[in-house]
Amino acid sequence: MSCYDGMKERFAASRFRSRFRLSEAEKAYLAEKGWNVIRAQTERIIRERLAQAVPPNDGSQTPMRGHPVFKAQHATATCCRGCLSKWHGIRPGHAFTEEELAYVTDMILGWLHDQAGDLSVFPSTPDLFEPASSDSTAEQHFGKKDI
Ligand SMILES: [Zn+2]
Q: Does 140 or 98 have the greater pLDDT score?
């Protein structure tokens, strides 16, 4: 059982957490990027907004929209150090260990996978089945046109 599966019922019991859903546009975005890129983006967002001992604007650093990962963070109580402490037992005031970073990443990816369902219905699925770096996808999107 993944760490997300272990928490899923608790999230479902929260009116606030359970109201978050991915839109069709957000599912299409996940399909377009592929899971390797989404995982890399998730890790970057966590490192920039959550992983420091005292994150900037802690408690309000996670927007309600703008990236599917933000939505996943509210849905899984990984939005701020207060929620991480209350829901996941990760105490505030210290920088994340690699284990904590991996745990939070898996929690967010777990929710995204659960919400996304079968992404193969979307036309563009670059790396759902093959590993790829975020750089290669950036190249696909921006490289040829802009250079
Ligand atoms: Zn929070």
A: 98
Mark 28-39 as b/e (b = at least 16 C-beta within 10 Å): bbbbbbbbbbbb
62 Cα to the center of ligand 1, angstroms: 8
pLDDT tens digit sequence for 69-105: 999 999 999 999 999 999 999 999 999 999 999 999 9
> Ligand 1 centre from 76 Cα, in Å?
9
The pTM score is 0.83
Half-sphere exposure of 2 toward its Cβ, with a 13 Å CA cutoff? Answer: 15
Separation of CA 91 and ligand 1 centre (Å): 13
* Span from the CA of 122 to the centroid of ligand 1 (angstroms): 32
